[in-house]
Amino acid sequence: MRRLMLLRHAKTExxxxxxxxxxxxxxxxxxxxxxxxxxxxxxxPPFPGxxxxxxxxxxxxxxxxxxxxxxxxxPEPRVELMPELYGADPSQLLQIVRAASEADPRRLMxxxxxxxxHELALALAGSGDAAGRKALTDNLPTSGLAGLDFDxxxxxxxxxxxxxxxxxxxxxLLKQTSGD
Length: 180
Fold this sequence. Notes:
CATH architecture: 3-Layer(aba) Sandwich
Largest sheet: 7 strands, mixed
Low-confidence stretches: none
């Protein structure tokens, strides 16, 4: 069994001072949402063993805040910054997931961007939580986390429609369940 966790970066500023999209930083809401998702993750194992993070500033800021919120509750994963995650489409993302067979973590997290992350989650989720699948159909929002289980022994065997959606968490859904 392997678990793939797809985490979209948190909410960002509209423009970076440099004018480069990859340099956009998290805004106040994004920092708060990333911390909220990290705190939720800290209380809901299993935890990732390998985290692949886009080199875009907003993605690695998201991971740093998520990790800060969960680090007292989880073992530290191996983290790799990957420039190829920026702008990757679902097919490219699938190849990155399959390449994880070299490191062979039981649980893999990718911190990246839409539309590729959202499209990948939809393409992989062949079964699982019906309410989560319905909500995921609309969007993988900023700070949204989708978790999919695969009944496989090797990441190289991950394929579209073979995943079972086991979790779909967003800051908005967390607020609704907490009554805030």
